[in-house]
Structure formats: C-alpha cells, structure tokens
Amino acid sequence: MRDLKLSGAPPWLRAAPAIGLLDTALGTRFARHGIGAARFVSEVLTTEHGDAIAEILLAGHFAPRLVSAAVFDGRRPGSAQAVARGLDWLIERDTTLVNLSFGLREDRAVLRQACERAVAAGATLVASTPARGEAVYPAAYPGVLRITGDARCSPGQVSHLDSRQADFGACVGALQHHPGALGGGASLAAAHVTAMLGQWLAKGGRGDPRRHLEALCQLHGAERRKP
Questions:
Q1: How far are the Cα atoms of 68, 79, 122, 161, 220 from residue 143, in angstroms, in the given order?
Q2: pTM of this structure
Q3: DSSP letters spanning 61-85
Q4: What is the average per-residue pLDDT within 132-145?
C-alpha cells in the first residue's frame, strides 16, 4: 500500500474540509492540491476516471483536502475487499465526506460493514446509482446518499427524486479537461453532489446533509423522457 502523508501541507489546507475519494489513482497534475493517497490495487492502468471525478470535486470556490484511496486499476472492476479497505483507511484519516462514483452488482458483507462503520463515525457517503435497473452497492446500503444523473440539472443544481432507485439527481457533465469522460451519467452526478456538500461544509455548514440537499432542490420528481 502506498500512503502519502499530509503533515507537510500548509495550515490552510490542513484546516480545509476533508473529502475522501474512492476511485482509480489520480494523475500527477493533482499533486499541487496537497493530496494524501494510498493504493489498494496492484497496478494502475489509467487514471482517467479518478481525474475526471477529482476535477469536479476541486472546482468549487474552496480548497478541500482531497484524500485519494485507489481501489480500481482503471480498466477492471475493483473488489469489495479493496473498496472496504480503502474506505476504512479514509475514515481513519478523519474524512467527513466520501465520494463513491461506482456501483458493484453484489452485496458483500465486507463492504456493507465498512459502510456501516463509516456512517457510525459520522461520515457522509455519496454513491452513484443507475436511474433504472437493479440496485448497486454501496448506494443501496442504509445511510448512503444515492445519486443518479439528471439531464435537467446543470453544475450546482440538484433534483429531489426520492425514488426506489435514487435520492437525488445531478449534472451528468464532466468539466473542460474531460469533456467526454465516462460518458456522463451517475458517476459524474455523484461527484457534483459531493462538491456541493464540500462547499457547504467549507462555509461552516452543520446538520443533516440530506436535508441540506433537499432545501437546495428546485426540481422534484423523476426526469420525464420525451416520447
């Protein structure tokens, strides 16, 4: 496991909100943001997914302390064990907000228990979920915010879906450096919601993140597809 410490970061960065990112490893251009990182996979094949998510998380008018746990190699699905280890590692480093822009098809006890520990520790977990189809994990676990894509939303907007599949919808677009990354969808939507919550925390936000998002919603109900 590769572990980069944040002890040398400037005071303003150490005091910023801690946002955990469970994804692929990140590219070198994010090093300037004082990222703490660990790797729970044997190799890194590409950083494209993690880079696209990190760019959204870092785009707000605040300086989050982004802590990265690489649990996917970038080409193949990661294991529930790797994700659980990465999540535990993030929580041990006092991350209060964690982005999980992925969904595993099968419920695994090791992942469910890691999410339960994180929620019990007071962390907010933001996970992506498809708008339709079978449930995915960790989004389907109790206490996790379930986010899907909503084409009605632009960056900074969120819709209140409260459906069987998802709690909220958000923007499906990547930022300028990754205009075609991931094909849009729930992965990017989850990152947009995490960024919004990060900005709220940076401004001293307190209380229930779910209630905060509900108060921001201008759109309610499912997105209606045109015939």
A1: 22, 21, 10, 16, 21
A2: 0.88
A3: SS--EEEEEEEE-SSSPPPHHHHHH
A4: 95
Per-residue pLDDT, averaged over 85-95, amounts to 95
CB-based contact 124:145 (threshold 8 Å): yes
Q: What is the mean pLDDT of the chain?
A: 86
**What end-to-end distance do the CA atoms of the chain give, in Å?**
50
Domain borders along the chain are: 3-220
* CATH class of the domain at 3-220: alpha beta
pLDDT at 192: 95
Q: Are 69 and 90 in contact (CB under 8 A)?
A: yes
Structure token digits, residue 121:
């520790």
The residue ranking higher by pLDDT, 96 or 178, is: 96
Distance CA 59, CA 50 (A): 14
Amino acid identity of residue 214, one-letter, is E
Identify the residue whose tokens are 């729970």: 40
What's the CA gap between 126 and 97, in Å, rounded?
A: 8
User: In the prediction, which pLDDT does 98 show?
Assistant: 97
Q: Which residues of 17-44 are buried (b: 16+ CB within 10 A; e: fewer)?
A: bbbbbbbbbbeeebeebbbbbbbbbeeb
Phi, psi of 112, rounded to the nearest 5 degrees: -60, -45
Q: Beta strand pairing status for 158-160 and 219-220?
A: parallel
CB 65 within 8 A of CB 36: yes
- Residue 196: per-residue pLDDT: 94
In contact, 56 and 195? CB cutoff 8 Å: yes
d(CA 7, CA 39): 19
